[in-house]
Hints:
14-stranded antiparallel barrel; 19 strands; PorV/PorQ family protein; mainly beta
Amino acid sequence: MVIAQVSTPKYANEYLALGVGARAYGMGEAFQSVASDVYSGYWNPAGLLGINSDQVQVAAMHTSLFSGIANYDYAGIAARTDSSTVLGFSFIRLGVDDIPDTRFLYDADGSINYDNIRFFSAADYAFIFSVAHIFPKTPNLEFGANVKVLYRNAGDFATAWGFGFDLGVKTSIGNWDLGATLRDATGTYVAWYHETSLLSQVYAQTGNELSEQSLEISPPRLIIGANRRFNIGSENFGIRPSLDLLLTFDGKRNTLISGSFTSVDPYAGLEMDYKNIVFLRAGAGKVQKTKDFDGSESYELTPAAGIGLKIKNLYVDYALTDVGNVSEALYSHVFSLKIDFAIKK
């Protein structure tokens, strides 16, 4: 039997919610209003306008998840086209490589032949095209938009293509920076195509139905944030508190504030700097309620910490955190680099 499925799960395409950049991770992902460089292509496209007119910014990040089983990588580039417009591109890959395919482990005579084992990868890709613009009539508002093209595959067994849109805005009120992004603004759609012929024997043995096609839809989510840099004694020392609120509208979630219409997940971060050269960071987020074996309930959150160093046009950042809150114990080391290239005019 061949069927097609359509679903709107709460956690579809969650690899797009993992975040990018060790600076953001070190601040507990409270980065919505802080983003003002090439990483804004992920966090808030309006923040790309923080790039100077004589710069091209390039960034990269790598981390491993599940004790090295999965690799999570990011690369981005952004540059101004004129005084009011910035273009950017971001690439994301989350993958598990060298997965053994043991379907042909046994020869026809029933003996085990390890030479028959094949290997494949299961990976999720995102290609994000960003634009940020200031309109003359609203000089205090920065606008941005993303077009996301998604590709996912599980070896030769299944492939998927999808697309979605993000809309972002940033502004300043006094010394406060404010930002908001409507992620998956119209819903992000991913169409899966399954090679059922490769798994027909397995399906027949288990009695499962064969689904050649399926469609996943990620509903919109809204992220709002605010931050401000305070001087400590002098302009050489600064501290920047930041707060983000993630609002979802697909029913109750396991978040700090959970309601039938919307659930709210807060993120808080702090960054201390010396002359904007050396940075110390800390943050926390992803507050969840857990129930113990004795029936009692408690709240858990994901802490993070990080450091950063600016060497001329090179930014080196490190963070220690539980990327994506994928485990209770396995924390990941996140490294990222950003380089500002000067454009000669």
